[in-house]
Amino acid sequence: MSKQIEVSSETSAGTSNEKKEDFSQLWSYVDQNETKFVDQLVRLVSQPSISAQNIGLKECAELVRSMMEKLGIKTQLISVPNAPDVVYGELRSSEKRARTLVIYNHYDVQPVEPLSEWKTDPFKPEVVDGKLFGRGSGDDKGELVARFCAIETLLDNGSSIRPNIRWVVEGEEETGSTHFHDFVLKNKSLLRGDGCLWEGGDRSTKGTPEIHLGTKGLVYIEFKVKVGEKDQHSMYGPIAPNPAWRLVNLLKTIRDDKGKILIQGFYDDVAKPTPQEKKFLRNNEYNLKELREALKIDYLIQGKNDLETITNLLYNPTANIAGFGSGYVGEGSKTIVPKEAFVKMDYRLVANMRAKDILAKIKRHVRNHGFTDVQLISHSLEDPAKTPVESEIAQTLIRCTKLVTGKRPNVWPTSPGTGPLSLFTDKLKLKTAMGLGVSYPGSGFHAPNEHIRVEDYKQAIKQLICLFRLF
Amino acid sequence: MSKQIEVSSETSAGTSNEKKEDFSQLWSYVDQNETKFVDQLVRLVSQPSISAQNIGLKECAELVRSMMEKLGIKTQLISVPNAPDVVYGELRSSEKRARTLVIYNHYDVQPVEPLSEWKTDPFKPEVVDGKLFGRGSGDDKGELVARFCAIETLLDNGSSIRPNIRWVVEGEEETGSTHFHDFVLKNKSLLRGDGCLWEGGDRSTKGTPEIHLGTKGLVYIEFKVKVGEKDQHSMYGPIAPNPAWRLVNLLKTIRDDKGKILIQGFYDDVAKPTPQEKKFLRNNEYNLKELREALKIDYLIQGKNDLETITNLLYNPTANIAGFGSGYVGEGSKTIVPKEAFVKMDYRLVANMRAKDILAKIKRHVRNHGFTDVQLISHSLEDPAKTPVESEIAQTLIRCTKLVTGKRPNVWPTSPGTGPLSLFTDKLKLKTAMGLGVSYPGSGFHAPNEHIRVEDYKQAIKQLICLFRLF
């Protein structure tokens, strides 16, 4: 803890001119080698790796491995039963008493559908107007390759990497890291360290880098009703059961018109923001109008003021409908009673909710409301996670951003997103932070036309160079 | 009306031996000429005429016309803007004070896909085990040619056709008769008459011919909510509006758990079955267990007993969800807030509801419940139609079945399905009935391997012979 506070005060005191000199040389190298670094990302994005559809995962793992080996990282592919291989790498520091930085990334990406909405081929990345388009250009291949490029810059310029590095790159993050849990628990010794750099690291609408110190949890489930072997002519409507109506009837018991979740006990363990967290929220930059525009959404669900809206985003759990499918969804009309219906839902959990507890409460709700004909499929469970701002990793990330941008980053006590972070914070007792990433609010993670700005990519590499020298 | 009652009592009194004699001679002719009559149907089925794909319609219209001309029917092809030609034919009776029978058929057929599921070529009709296979063998070419064969039998045997005949054969029934409405309204004078024989006429599972005296109406609409230009990462769930939840919130105001429709005034004009209709329902043959098995559905929504269940099927209006689409509907999971959601609904209307009135009530409901963000797209409107069982056309059909089978047909005051029947009953003031058809529950209209039984075909021709002598 004393060590962490030392680093913290170092940050407050600013950095010496000497260090600034060193970095500006390294940073120039980044600017000069933009094309090379973009090409490296293009190469990785060109390799499809869709975990939800089991496409290209083996090839992508091999490619990641070979890119790491080129940097002198010792790698192994660790097979995980019923899941894609984990790429694991180690780089030993030449310095005495070096600390150990654990790094987490994932090499899988989201499905690309609807393909018709992409303006470029999702797996043939293209730079258009200073933006690199492609599935995974940000999430998470862009972040991974930016880290590679930072190491390459240091090595090419004869600078050493100060910490030991233990790097884990998994292949099923986009389907909920279902088997990564087991992997981590079985390989705790590979993942010991003094802090962890997670994936992520966005920018504000003004371009200020952001650091997130927590994630929400997730319960992803599917409700399914099947009433027969074929769709019926809808003239049988008065006597044929309708599975879509059945799901509507269930859904209306789950959430009211105002978004309040009606599942008994759902809010029992919800933690409100602490006074310190409230202070961060007040000091951070954000612009909801710009966020809304970047999301290309007609309106946001507002609180009393912007601070309340942003607090809701971070501290409210949800019961989201991610997909609803039933019957005829083509052009025009077709008169049928569908044979089946399903709804995919993700419930985002905040500290201190527990995924297993919420899943049990959902199951009890369905049973207690008499929906015995509704099948519940559980796709993934994830607990929320949080790391204190005083930790070494958090302080170092803040410092790196200050060095490159001259300003302090926005520090968020949690992210609205989810990842298997609790595995690291809870099971490995690793202080874990997200920052120094490549994206901005318009990046469109998970959506068609995912992209990053090349300027942000270079800025991330520069900050990561500092991290590998300062941790 | 007095005339109708006269016919009705004639039916009740049975027919004279002399008439029975006449018919049995004509019926023998049908049996003796089975091959010829089957060949005529083969010829028409061999001509593809798929309105949804604009295949062979002109050729088929010409063929129908030439078949009618051979029977001495004066024909014309009437062009309809943006639609296939209507074949129109007239046959004048030699009798004084002859009544006029209007006949409706269509010469177009459904697409044949999936072709791989056909055991024969859909346009090379074959008789296998007493069944004639081919697209349109039943719907509606089988019914049309059976009517030709009845006329041919009468002419070949020196019997006259008693009524004047006005025959309309359209070419876009399978795509919703979209332009046929205009045709009818512009050509009312061509379609005046004392009764109309519609297409249709099925058999019960026990082989008893069925007569239907009405159709349900239909309001087919789509609700659509769009909240932005792209799907969002579902981490934005607390502040991003969810269009699928929006539709769930609307739908729950439309219909309760038990299927009762909550739109104000929806049931205002619903006609309950009359005592006479109830009597028919009690006397008709039906087997709900066999129906459920044929539909391959797990269960039916039951009334207190089978009679109530079948009454519900015919007399209950519906608010059916025919399709619901939003967000991610592929395998596994994807964490998004969808950019849009839509639900396709067909509302089946019973006598005396009116489609325009119900559409207006739905619009008012959406507005009054504050769903100003929900777009309502109207796909089709059709009024219900009903012809009283006392009408001359209904009584004559019943009588024809009794003469040929020795038993009374199942008489259904309405069908659970929908068609442009109200055009004839309401706009042309024509009493219109469906019966004396060629199909049975296994015929598979619209499906691969559509077929009819040759015995049913001959039985239909025999009944139609009676119709052309008795109307």
Key descriptive features of the protein:
homodimer, 471 residues, Aminopeptidase, Alpha-Beta Plaits, 2 domains, 6-stranded mixed sheet, 19 strands, 20% strand, disordered N terminus
Q: What would you say the CATH architecture of the largest domain in chain A is?
A: 3-Layer(aba) Sandwich
> What would CATH call the class of the largest domain in chain A?
Alpha Beta
User: What's the β-strand tally of chain A?
Assistant: 19
Instruction: Describe the main β-sheet of chain A briefly.
Output: 6 strands, mixed
Specify the overall morphology of chain A.
globular
Terminal CA distance of chain A reads: 15 Å
Describe the structure.
- The structure is a homodimer of 471-residue chains.
- With 471 residues, the first copy, chain A, is an alpha+beta fold.
- Chain A folds into 2 domains: 2-215 and 385-470, Zn peptidases (Aminopeptidase), CATH 3.40.630; 217-270 and 317-382, Alpha-Beta Plaits (2-Layer Sandwich).
- In chain A, 35% of the residues lie in helices and 20% in strands.
- The first copy, chain A, has 14 helices and 19 strands.
- A 6-stranded mixed sheet of chain A has the order 1-2-6-3-7-18. In chain A, strands 12-14-10-15 form a 4-stranded antiparallel sheet, covered by helices on one side.
- In chain A, strand 1 (74-80) and strand 2 form a beta hairpin.
- In chain A, helix 2 (17-32) runs antiparallel to helix 14 and helix 12 (392-405) crosses helix 14 (454-470).
- The radius of gyration of chain A is 23 Å and the shape is globular.
- Chain A starts with a helix and ends with a helix.
- Mean pLDDT of chain A is 92; it is low at 1-19.
- The interface between A and B is large, with 87 and 75 residues.
